[in-house]
Amino acid sequence: MKWGVISTANIGTAKVIPAMQQSDKLEIRAIAGRDLEKTREVAENLRIPRAYGSYEELLADPSIEAVYNPLPNHLHVEWTIKALEAGKHVLCEKPIGLNTEDAERLIEARTKSGKQVLEAFMVRHHPQWQHARELVSSGQIGELTTIQSIFTYHNTNPADVRNKKDIGGGGLLDIGCYCVIGPRYITGRDPVRVVSLMDKDPKFGTDRLVSGLLDFGSGVQASFVCGTQSAAVQRVHILGTEGRIEIVMPYNPVPENPAVIRVGTQKQPSFDEAREISFPVCNQYTLQGENATAIFNGSIEVDYPIEDAINNMKILDSLARSARTGSWEMVDHK
């Protein structure tokens, strides 16, 4: 399948495109940007055959079958719809939109186009997350009780899109979405209500620290902290009545090294005594690209349709609303 990329954004050029190029199941045929000279330079460095000076030109290329959209958050829905209207399948970066209302526009666009649109949560394709879910579903840690996630980095660059409020910047949409998708993936369920606490940068107006609690019902909880101006760390703990799982590098495992999770029992208070499970070297962005390609060419069924992305957006909206109201907020999954 021949892919095109709209935008020369760093997430694409530094991580996703090189990873997808490792696969023999797809081809990155073209890339588009607003600055043709810069785009040509990027294309040359990444050995991409075609460079376009506008997104419209790429979408008009009849050889392109699928599009990867890593544009800033406020452009996700707009250009995903344009790609669908041009007859292309779309893999769109997370979050799928700025809010639920924005994201729901994609349902009609998908239906009219007859093409598929997927949200790019690469973690769901990494073996470490898949195995952690299997351990939980098979009862190896007893009854699931809670999932704790932390994901932070430090970035105070005013020119960075993640620090621009008017185009969807802030920690909740950028990395808090991982702290929501992870528990949803492990449990196979959606929370019924959420509560959060949010601290905003006085100059940027973006959320720089968010703590959240998700109530999945039946006693299962998930909690998280995400931040954009804290020391960088990421970790996930999954606790059950009889044991626990630690995902050491849950979101950005180094693709050149084996990923590791630790599994401990109720009687092992320290993870030093836990069983360590390592996974063969892989790149989750490569696996994501191959999965999307297989869905787009009809080889496999859609695993996470756009409706799932909208459900994730509803939870993020509810967390943002809770930060404003200071109370628990119900999540409407109708």
TrEMBL record:
TM annotation in the entry: none
Domain GFO/IDH/MocA-like oxidoreductase residues, every copy: 129-246
InterPro entries, per the entry: Gfo/Idh/MocA-like_OxRdtase_N, Gfo/Idh/MocA_domain, GFO_IDH_MocA-like_dom, NAD(P)-bd_dom_sf
Keywords linked to the UniProt accession: Oxidoreductase
Pfam families listed in its UniProt record: GFO_IDH_MocA, GFO_IDH_MocA_C3
Regions annotated as coiled coil: none
Domain called Gfo/Idh/MocA-like oxidoreductase N-terminal: residue spans: 2-119
Superkingdom of the source species: Bacteria
GO molecular function: nucleotide binding; oxidoreductase activity
Keyword Nucleotide-binding: no
Family stated for the protein in its record: Belongs to the Gfo/Idh/MocA family.
PANTHER family for the chain: OXIDOREDUCTASES (PTHR22604), TRANS-1,2-DIHYDROBENZENE-1,2-DIOL DEHYDROGENASE (PTHR22604:SF105)
Protein name: NAD-binding protein
Phylogenetic placement of the source organism: Bacteria, Pseudomonadati, Pseudomonadota, Alphaproteobacteria, Rhodospirillales
